[in-house]
Amino acid sequence: MGSGDWSKAAYTASSAAFETKGRDDIFTTKTASAVDDSMLPFNVAIRESRDSDAHPTSLALMVCLDVTGSMGTIPEQLVKGKLGEVMNTLIDHGIKDPQIMFCGVGDHECDRVPLQISQFESADKELQHWLTKIFLEGGGGGNAGESYILPWYFAARSTSIDCFEKRGEKGFIFTIGDEPYLPSVPADALKKIFGSGEALLTAEQLLAEAQRTYHVFHIHIAHGSARSGNWKDLLGQNLITIDDHNIVAEIIASTVAYMHGVDVTSSFDAATADKVTTALAHVDRGVAKNTDKVVNL
C-alpha cells in the first residue's frame, strides 16, 4: 500500500473541517463489535510498505497510539492538524516518501480490542480515513501496564517493508503512552489476537524480533501520576520522555530525521524546538542503516 500522494493543501482543509468537532464526532467506530475486521490482526496476513513510481524510496513508520483512558487526546490532535506536522516536516527535509501505519494499542488482559492496525499509507485522505476508524476503547485496567509490545509482534511477523528489504534501511516503530509495558503475552492471548502463538513471549523477545527490521522507540508521556516503569531498562536511549503531549508529532518527525542525519528543529517555533532538542539529546543520530545485527540497547 501507500501509493497515493500527500497533499498539504488537502490535509489542511480536511483537518480544519475537524477543528470544531468533538472526539465522538471524529472517530467513527463507537463500539468494540463495530471495529472493522480489516483492522484486526487476526484477519490480516501481512501489511506492506512498498516502493512505487510515485514513492521510489518508501520509509515505513508505525505510529502506535495508546487508546486507553486518558490518551485519546493524541489521536484527536493528529486528526486536527498534527499529522501534517509529521508528514510535512519529513517531506520538506528530504525524506520524501514516508508511509505511516496507525495502530491502536490497548490492554490484552482487560480490553476487548487490544490491537488495531491500519494499512501503510502515504496520502492525506487515506491516512485520515484509517486514523478516524480507530476505536478509542478507553479501557485498560489496574494491572500496572498496557500492551505496547503487541505492535512489535505484528511488525516482526506480519509486515513486509521495501525500505529494509530493498535498501537495508530500517523502518520505525513509535509506541506512545503514559504507562509501563506489560512484560509478556501468553500463548492464548497471542492466538486470540493474531491467530497464532505457541508459547508465552516476553517483551525482550518481541523487541529483539522487531529490531531486526525497525528502529523501536517509545514516547512516554510523563503527565500527572503517569509511571514509566522499567521502560529505561528495556529501551535505553530509545525511550523518549516528554511532559507535553502537544509535541508528540514533532518528536516523531525529528527522531526519524535525526536518524537520517537531518536536524529539523529550525522549522518549529522556539519553545517547541527547545523541548524537542532536550527530549532527543540522548538519541544517537545518523544510524538509519544498521542491518548487520539486532541493535543492543
How would you summarize the topology of this molecule?
Layout: H1 8-18, H2 23-26, E1 47-49, E2 59-66, H3 73-92, E3 98-105, E4 115-117, H4 124-133, H5 150-158, E5 159-161, H6 162-167, E6 171-177, E7 184-185, H7 187-194, E8 201-202, H8 203-211, E9 214-221, H9 231-235, E10 239-242, H10 248-259, H11 270-279
Parallel strand pairs: 1-5, 2-3, 2-6, 6-9, 9-10
Antiparallel strand pairs: 3-4, 7-8
Helix tally equals 11
Element-level helix/strand string? HHEEHEEHHEHEEHEHEHEHH
> Which CATH architecture is right?
3-Layer(aba) Sandwich
User: Rough shape?
Assistant: globular
Structural class: alpha/beta
CATH topology: Rossmann fold
- The top level CATH class name: Alpha Beta
Largest sheet: 6 strands, mixed
Tally of structural domains: 1
Using DSSP, what is the number of strands?
10
